[in-house]
Amino acid sequence: MTKKKTYTEAIQEIEEIIESVESGDLDVDKLSEKVKEVAALLTFCKDKLHNTEEEVQKILDSIQGDD
What we know:
This protein is mainly alpha-helical and 67 residues long. The protein is built from two helices and no strands. The chain has helices at 7-23, 28-65.
């Protein structure tokens, strides 16, 4: 995949996989693969949230430092 995934896209993909599992539409042979995919997506989302939090904190610190 050449396009960078966004947080929203990752969450949407996680939700789609969860729906497939809950509805029984997911083939048992692909379950392990999808669980690994969800784990990777969750790690991506966690990292994205952490990085965003750090960026926002830097901005807030910068604003407070300008006072």
